[in-house]
């Protein structure tokens, strides 16, 4: 067990991404508090090498074998002692090393599930950015956390805000804590006010240009479609034991109120701050203490007006699809996630139009029978089946491309 004064030893899964880099930024500000044991990335050799030079971890993992060999060479040339490992098993291994106290789970997509689950099974302090772990395997994940005695702290800004707004020592029972509802805020993304007749022409570049947050490309598209909020509703369900009817989404374009908890006496407790992921990251890293993190302090007078609106599900059908999947049970959420991952990847590759994203997801949700996924094999089996259906849909919708949808999307504005 980690004592209060001991240095906290970290594995950062997905260290070269947006959350990974923000985590290392906070860690570097507190060299006497944190040390880095392992860093991991998919295939970006240069980024992981620079991080190894700066943070001298004992282990660096690359998923791609060729990338791992290239990294090993550069590490040897630089005279560093970091051991380079490769593949999914190595990711799982560094997530549960005995010398590691805390694991930042910041891989994107269901690719993060196995190592994040390994950290939970290993009883680590798990800082959860990889929301897809909870969306795809919520029951299994929460059961694993409870069985191992792991500490689970949310990094998603909304869930971190809810966590901060719940009573200290919240035991998982909202009703006995006097909670009426969880209010998740959503910025509304880049297309909150775009005329609907322009949706057919939306390009990946436009979808990735979030007004308030700088993030990886997948979550940026999810924010544009509001599937991100849908995934977060499911994430909140598992993290806080909240039924669908106790979770409300409120559009708040300024992204200053990061989420709220409403109590039965009418009190609404909110957590606020400038939109900077280093706030939830530092909160979870130091929990229950507080540490500085380089974030600009909030100037409310400069912020001026804070607006709140109801989400427009006609504009954002992905949000409604996620609520449907949550009500249908955890197998449906696994299918929803897989279909969304394929749809976003194909959209980013300009193989599908923006408007195709909800169409593909709705079709796959209807086509795959999704019993509750209890084991990791169940989850991966459902994920696989849903991906196959999604790929079939993409192949069938080839006529869209021929009809010029994509040409229009990537052509004139
Ligand atoms: P990103 O794309 O910037 O980084 C992803 C990281 O995962 C990279 O280090 C990459 O090398 C690694 N990775 C990608 N594919 C992989 C694979 N197949 N196997 C192993 N590693 C792989 O993503 P991000 O924006 O940092 O988001 C990471 C996670 O955090 C996502 O689940 C996202 O939803 C969540 N999150 C991000 C933010 C944010 O502000 N960026 C906010 C809340 C939650
Ligand atoms: Mg979020």
Written description of the protein model:
- The protein has 413 residues and is α/β, with parallel strands linked by helices.
- The chain has three domains: 8-155, NAD(P)-binding Rossmann-like Domain (Rossmann fold, 3-Layer(aba) Sandwich), CATH 3.40.50; 162-275, no CATH class; 329-396, Orthogonal Bundle (Rna Polymerase Sigma Factor, Chain: A), CATH 1.10.1740.
- Helices cover 47% and strands 14% of the residues.
- It contains 18 helices and eleven strands.
- The chain has helices at residues 18-28, 45-55, 65-77, 88-95, 113-121, 131-148, 157-165, 204-208, 217-225, 227-240, 278-286, 300-303, 317-328, 330-348, 356-367, 376-396, 398-402, 405-410, and strands at residues 8-13, 34-41, 59-62, 83-86, 102-105, 125-128, 151-154, 179-186, 247-251, 257-263, 268-272.
- The strands form two sheets. It has a seven-stranded parallel beta sheet with strand order 4-3-2-1-5-6-7, sandwiched between helices. Strands 9-8-10-11 form a four-stranded mixed beta sheet, covered by helices on one side.
- Helix 5 (113-121) packs parallel to helix 6 (131-148), helix 6 (131-148) runs parallel beside helix 10 and helix 15 crosses helix 16.
- The chain is globular, with a radius of gyration of 21 Å.
- The termini are far apart.
- The model is unreliable at 402-413 (pLDDT under 50).
- The chain binds nicotinamide-adenine-dinucleotide and magnesium ion (MG).
- The site of nicotinamide-adenine-dinucleotide has 26 residues, from helix 1, helix 6 and helix 9.
């Amino acid at each position: 067990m980690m004592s209060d004064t001991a240095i906290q030893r970290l594995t950062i899964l997905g260290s070269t991404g947006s959350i990974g880099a923000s985590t290392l930024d906070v860690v570097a500000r507190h060299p006497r508090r944190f040390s880095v044991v392992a860093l991991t990335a998919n295939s970006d050799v240069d980024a992981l090498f620079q991080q190894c030079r700066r943070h001298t971890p004992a282990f660096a993992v690359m998923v791609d074998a060729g990338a791992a060999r290239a990294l090993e060479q550069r590490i040897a040339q630089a005279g560093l002692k970091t051991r380079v490992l490769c593949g999914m098993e190595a990711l799982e291994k560094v997530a549960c090393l005995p010398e590691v106290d805390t694991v930042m789970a910041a891989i994107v997509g269901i690719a993060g599930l196995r190592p994040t689950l390994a950290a939970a099974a290993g009883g680590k302090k798990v800082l959860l950015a990889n929301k897809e772990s909870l969306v795809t395997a919520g029951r299994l994940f929460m059961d694993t956390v409870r069985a191992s005695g792991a500490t689970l702290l949310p990094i998603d800004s909304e869930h971190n805000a809810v966590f901060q707004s719940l009573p200290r020592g919240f035991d998982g029972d909202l009703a006995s804590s006097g909670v009426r509802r969880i209010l998740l805020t959503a910025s509304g993304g880049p297309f909150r006010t775009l005329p609907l007749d322009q949706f057919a022409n939306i390009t990946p570049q436009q979808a990735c240009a979030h007004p308030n947050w700088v993030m990886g490309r997948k979550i940026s598209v999810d924010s544009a479609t509001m599937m991100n909020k849908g995934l977060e509703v499911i994430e909140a369900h598992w993290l806080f034991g909240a039924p669908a009817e106790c979770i409300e989404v409120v559009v708040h374009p300024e992204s200053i109120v990061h989420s709220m908890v409403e109590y039965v006496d009418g009190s609404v407790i909110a957590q606020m701050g400038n939109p900077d992921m280093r706030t939830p990251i530092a909160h979870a890293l130091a929990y229950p203490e507080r540490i500085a993190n380089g974030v600009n302090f909030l100037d409310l007078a400069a912020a001026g007006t804070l607006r709140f609106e109801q989400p427009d599900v006609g504009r954002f059908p992905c949000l409604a699809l996620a609520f449907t999947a949550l009500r249908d049970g955890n197998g449906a959420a696994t299918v929803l996630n897989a279909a969304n991952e394929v749809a976003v990847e194909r959209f980013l590759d300009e193989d599908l139009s923006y408007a195709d994203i909800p169409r593909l997801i709705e079709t796959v949700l209807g086509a795959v029978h999704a019993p509750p996924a209890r084991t990791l094999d169940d989850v991966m089996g459902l994920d696989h089946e849903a991906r196959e259906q999604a790929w079939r849909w993409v192949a069938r919708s080839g006529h869209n491309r021929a009809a010029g949808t994509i040409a229009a999307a990537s052509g004139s504005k």
